[in-house]
Specification:
three-stranded antiparallel beta sheet, two-stranded antiparallel ribbon, 3 helices, 5 strands, globular, binds iron/sulfur cluster, Fe-S-cluster containining protein, Puta_zinc/iron-chelating_dom
């Protein structure tokens, strides 16, 4: 199974900030405006991530057990840009730091061996090529 589906740690660690043009108020299929708040003149952030304690309002998770982004197809660009550690052959400091903060071990290449056996096209989100992009986020200093 894709490790993000049993994690969600990074959706509770960083401010999720992005340009206001990503809002669905101005871009069809964009981030639901009701789940955002104004950060500054040019940026919005996901509600729940402006400051500590951080937990994105769009997150449906029991961290380390179960995790889903409830706006996955419409999540902000920053959420699409950060890879889980070793998903594409390299460690991710944001992923590692978020997991460690929740007492979870950083991912290793061994956490991705399931992909070889998962190409069964059964429509489940852990299939190769059908796995969710990692939730999070580019941290932006408050
Ligand atoms: S990117 Fe890393 S920290 Fe974020 S949900 Fe996936 S495994 Fe967890
Ligand atoms: S992927 Fe982004 S929008 Fe979705 S729950 Fe995580 S931080 Fe929130």
């Amino acid at each position: 199974m894709h490790p993000c589906l049993t994690c969600g740690a990074c959706c509770t660690q960083y401010r999720v900030a992005f340009h206001w043009m990503e809002s669905d108020e101005v871009t069809e299929g964009g981030v639901p405006a009701a789940l955002t708040q104004r950060l500054d003149a040019h940026r919005l952030c996901m509600r729940g991530t402006y400051g500590p304690p951080v937990r994105c309002v769009a997150l449906d998770a029991d961290i380390g057990v179960y995790s889903r982004c409830t706006i996955h197809p419409n999540r902000p660009s920053v959420c699409r840009e950060v890879d889980a550690s070793w998903e594409f052959g390299a460690a991710s400091s944001q992923c590692d730091r978020a997991r460690i903060a929740h007492g979870l071990p950083p991912l290793t290449p061994a956490d991705w061996t399931w992909r070889e056996a998962a190409s069964n096209d059964d429509g489940e989100p852990d299939d190769s090529g059908n796995s969710p992009s990692s939730p999070p986020v580019t941290p932006i200093a408050a």
